[in-house]
Amino acid sequence: MLNKLTGRRAGGFTLPEVMLAMGMSSLIMxxxxxxxxxxxxxxxxxxSLIRLEQLLSQTLFSIEKDLRRAGFCAGRxxxxxxxxxxxxxxxxxCLSLAYDVNRNGRWETGDQPEPEFFxxxxxxxxxxxxxxxxxxxxxxxxxxxxxxxxTIARFEVARETSGAQPRYRVSLEGYWTARPTRRWQVNSxxxxxxxxx
Length: 197
Prior knowledge:
Structural class: alpha+beta
Number of strands: 8
Radius of gyration: 31 Å
Order of helices and strands: HEEEEEEEE
Number of helices: 1
Strand content: 25-35%
Shape: rod-shaped
Largest sheet: 5 strands, antiparallel
Number of domains: 1
Distance between the termini: 98 Å
């Protein structure tokens, strides 16, 4: 169309061009609308795995801390500082260790303000800890993680080397109880700072 003042053609889009552009942008918007829920689900899944890794890593860290301290004694402590009790499947079912928290030269059991015996075990999908109890016996077990939230599939402690500074390999595998197909495993190689037998 000619402009009456300048005598040149006026620029712009024709109706078919506008309709084509609107149709293409509608297709792009539909594709984005379908991808958005998939991206959101993947983001939530990744965040869930990161949270699971954090929970398992924090739990493993507390076990590592006790393993490093096992065997410390400010005097002449009696007994074995660290025991690994195996179940019928040859896997360690209970880790028990002692260290002299109050520096009185003895590893004391029973009700103490600062317990000196620590035991960890895997029982029915839950990792449990007992403080102050005699080795893996006793009835003061507490769950480290909420079984309704996280299930522990595997807890292993294996002695790699012995001697003055023994090394232990600790593995912990778990999953969200509501989503057992999404598992995560954390491993650590821990060097003891004291001779623990």
